[in-house]
Each structure stands twice: as C-alpha cells, then as structure tokens.
Amino acid sequence: MRLGVSAGKFLGFMVSQRGIEVSPDQVKAVIETPPPRNKKELQRLIGKLVALGRFIARFTDELRPFFLAIRKAGTQGWTDNCQNALERIKHCLMHPPILSSPIPKEKLYMALADVETRYSKMELTALALRSAAQKLRPYFQAHPVIVLTDQPLRSILHKPDLTGRMLQWAIELSEFGIEFQPRLSKKGQVMADFVLEYSRRPNQHHESSEQEWWTLRVDGASRSSGSGVGLLLQSPTGEHLEQAIRLGFSASNNEAEYEAILSGLDLALALSVSKLRIYSDSQLVVRHVQKEYEAKDSRMARYLAKVRSTLQQFTEWTIEKIKRADNRHADALAGIAASLPSKKPFYCLHVQANPSVAENSTCNTIEATKRMIKNGRMILQNISGQALYPKILNKRTKSGCKLPVSP
Q: Does the keyword Oxidoreductase apply (predicted)?
C-alpha cells in the first residue's frame, strides 16, 4: 500500500478508511475450492481458512470438524459435518465483516469461546502464574517470588507424570525461584506500594475543596499485655488531635484495626466533621471498606457493617491503605495503649469495656457520653497556650473519651 492513497492491498488484506477488509481473491479461492479428496488437499484448505480466521465468526468451533477429519487418512475423515461447516464458512465469507477501530464510548461485547472454558481451576491458576512470569520476567529472575494460593500448585507442578500444557508450563516456571505458600486470608501484603497508592478507588467519593477535608490516621495493636488503638485527627488548618484507647476486652489484630476506625469516626463526628480522609496500614480492613475483599468471618462482617453505617453520616469520605512507616504516630499511640496498664494512662487513655459491635454496648452510645461528660473539662491548647477550636471544649466521642489535642 502506497502512502497518500485512500485504499489499497497490504499484507494480503484490503485497507481503507473504513478499516481492514478481506481480499476478494482470498474469498474466491475458498469458495471455488471443491471438497478435498485426500489429506494433503484438506491441509491446504485448512491453511486458506486459517489466513481468514479473523473474518469468520466462531472460527475455532467451525474448524473443529476439519481437525478431527485430518486425523484420518485419505477421504475417510471427510464427513457431512465437515461439508456443512465448509458451507457455513463460505456463506460467511460472502458477506465478511470489516475490522475497524473502536469508536469512543462504543459498547464492546466479548465472550469466551468453547475451548476457552475447558480449563479447570488448577489450570487457570497455573496459566495465570505462567502469564505473570512471562510479562514480569525481569522481576521473576531478579527476586525470589512467593505465591499465595489456595490451590496445591507446588505438588501439581512437581508431579512426574504431568502431560500436555501443564507439563509445558511447569518447565517454563522451573527456571524461577518460586515458593508456594497457602493463602489463609486476604491480608497478604504482596502488592507493590505504587499500585496501592495510585490504584483507583471506585467506591469512594471524589475529593472537593482541599480546605474542608479532615485527615484521620488510625492503627490498632493486639499484644499479650492487651489491645489498644491509636488515633491522629488533623484539622484542615493543621491542628492535631491525638487519642490512645485501651481495649478492655480481648481483641485480635484485625478487630483492633476495626475498633481504631470506629473510634476515629466517633471522634470526627463529635467535632461535626463532614469530609474525612481515612488512612490505615491494614490492607484487610481498607479493602473490606472499599468492597474489594469479602468479609467471610461473621465477626468481621459485623464490624464492617458498623463502619459502613457510620460512614453514611459523613458528606464525603475516602479511605486509603498506607505504608506502616507512614503511620508511625498512630502506631505508637496504639502500642502505648496496648502496653501500659490501664491505671497509668497516657494522653487520654480510656478503657473501653465492650466491643463496638456488641448487642448491649453501653460504651458507644450518646447516653454514655452524657453520663461521662461531667467528669471534667479538657482544655485544648497549642504550644503558645492559646485555645484551639473553643467550640469543641468538653466534647467527647460516643465511647466516652474526651478530646485531647497536641501541637
């Protein structure tokens, strides 16, 4: 095809402004082809059809009778099914489609062919690993790779009696130092940091004015000495409110992370915050809230439901997973609350008697707040001694904690 012309033949196809069309010569060669009389003619016919495969609907399924026939010598393999398939292909080539560029916002319909649905779950997992190894080959060669999976891939790929494509994939993967570990939960920290930071958040609201957003950093800690949560709430003008809460009940690490978010949301609501950004280093909790992970455990599901219900009280909100190194302040507060005895509080250390999802919870109610508000007056000051946010003096969260502030 020469430059400057509107249409012409290129690589055997007709190329024009409309798109790529099949060459009339190729169509004529197929239509005028008589039924094959031997195996060689059948192979020649299949070669012609393969060249036009992009213009034949369900090409793989249509050619299946030909591949079955070619296994038999002579003309014995040519059956009525083969003849019917050839007639359908000829009819399709009489009005072939045009391969064109997609139009913006045009709907694209895709479907799996029959042969593409015949993979078992084990084969799909092995194929996904093989595809990842091909696309990320430099990384697989330079670093040890740990695969978290619920499939027994290691035992399958090392079986001596492997055949077919599984054998081929096992050979390709054998050159890499791949270690397989069972995936007990979806909390595996295996994704690259840049993916976590820059991936899209479809379930979050769009950010509006930067001057109206508060920032909440939370962390939970579960140790042999106890459990605690740490909160760091930052106002739009830069003031920080810190809080350490010791949990008066046994809690797992995931439960402590959820308690941290719930306590932080209570703190924000007590200050009439409407737009809130939440940062946590717990991938499980963040992905639960973003609806990317499913809460299979019943207790986690109750925590998740309470978090989502509380978030509905905000006008806008976002939640994001951050590195543990970027959450050191909240982590330190949680560690202090979990480590120190409850009789020696640090900052405003409050002992929460019951879980937030308990049916008869008395700690996270407005009534509890009213009962405890008479315990004292918290003066919020910065370094210079001036009061910050005077209107929030004496306010408490639903769990009964006064609102401390740090410079």
A: no
Name the phi and psi angles at 286, rounded to 5.
-60, -45
- Enumerate the H helices of 209-340 as residue ranges: 253-270, 283-289, 298-311, 328-339
Per-residue pLDDT of 153-189, as tens digits, reads: 888 888 888 788 888 888 888 888 888 887 655 544 4
* CB-CB neighbours of 404 under 10 Å: 17
What does the chain come to in residues?
Answer: 407
The reply to whether 20-118 and 193-392 are identical in fold is no
Q: How far is CA 35 from CA 82, 85, 345, in A?
A: 9, 11, 91
Query: Could you tell me the sign of the dihedral formed by the alpha carbons of 392, 395, 396, 398, in that order?
Result: negative
Global confidence as pTM: 0.39
Tell which residue, 238, 275, 291, has the closest CA to residue 407. Answer: 238
Nearest alpha-carbon partner for 352 in 222, 271, 244: 244
Domain ranges of the chain: 20-118, 120-182, 193-392
CA distances to 15, 111, 119, 144, 296 from 115, rounded to whole Å, are 31, 12, 8, 34, 33
CA–CA dist 295, 302 (Å, integer): 9
Assess contact for 400 and 372: CB atoms under 8 A: yes
Q: Is 20-118 CATH 1.10.287?
A: no
pLDDT, one tens digit per residue, over 135-145 is 888 888 888 88
Q: What is the separation, in whole angstroms, between the first and last Cα of the chain? A: 72
Which residue bears the tokens 């976002």? 318
Helix, strand, coil percent values for the chain (each to nearest 5): 40, 15, 40
Return contacts of 303-309, CB within 8 angstroms, 24+ apart: 303/255, 303/258, 303/262, 303/356, 303/357, 304/258, 306/262, 306/356, 306/357, 307/258, 307/261, 307/262, 307/265
